[in-house]
Amino acid sequence: MAKIECVYWKDKIGGEIERRTTEAFSYGFTVGPHGEWEMVIAKEDKEVRKNELVNIKIGEIEVPEKAIVLPCAIMRHALGVAASLATPGKAKPVEERRVLDEVIFHPFADGKVSKGELLCVVNIFYATVERRLARGAAEKWLRERYRY
Predict the structure, then answer these.
(1) Residue 135 above 90 pLDDT?
(2) CB crowding 117-145: b at 16 or more within 10 Å, else e
(3) Angle CA(137)–CA(69)–CA(18) in degrees, nearest 5?
(4) Would strands 98-107 and 46-48 be described as parallel, antiparallel, or unpaired?
(5) Which element (helix H / strand E) includes 144?
(6) pLDDT tens, residue by residue, 77-108
(7) Structural domain of residue 77, as residue ranges?
(8) Rounded distance, CA 20 to CA 121, Å?
């Protein structure tokens, strides 16, 4: 068990930052044989400059409950790559449905990304979470339930 501090954008990417302290446990997952490809398409025009990361609104991508998103490592846009997909707000557990609506884009050249352009493709895989009790987690669980 580790005590961690989650730092996230409260209202918009690049906006107000919030922090939340919580306890977290490591656990694994098994990826099933079924997956989907989702296209990440720009929803706005945006000027980009070489090596200056920029957030770009995208068409919403729904990540179903118990699914994970993995990047498809093939470059899809001539001006750069999608470094990460994002949405503001607290992180949600994998067991909940999530919606991604922005991409953090890393341009390799100056230019303009236009609405409707393909930025990248992501893989959405369905997964089964394997919550194994980490060292110390079992003892903590027992202490909380059987207080003497």
Answers:
(1) no
(2) bebbebebbbbeeeeeeeeebeeeeeeee
(3) 65
(4) unpaired
(5) helix 137-145
(6) 999 999 999 888 888 888 899 999 999 999 99
(7) 28-131
(8) 31
In this structure, is residue 138 part of a structural domain? Answer: no
Mean pLDDT of 132-148: 65
Whole-angstrom distance, CA of residue 57 vs CA of residue 60: 9
CA separation for the pair 113, 92 (Å, rounded): 30
pLDDT at res. 15: 86
Distance CA 25, CA 138 (A): 11
Count of domains observed in the chain: 1
Evaluate whether residue 81 is within a structural domain.
yes
What sections of the chain are H helices per DSSP?
Answer: 137-145
Structure-block tokens of residue 64: 């179903």
- Which residues pair with residue 36 across a beta bridge? 124
Quote the CA–CA distance of 113 and 110 in Å, as a whole number.
Answer: 10
In a domain, 22, yes or no: no
What does pTM read for this prediction? 0.77
Which residues fall within 8 angstroms of residue 145, CB to CB, at 6 or more apart? none
Please report whether residue 51 resides in a domain.
yes
pLDDT in tens, 38-64: 999 999 999 999 999 999 999 999 999
pLDDT value, residue 130: 73
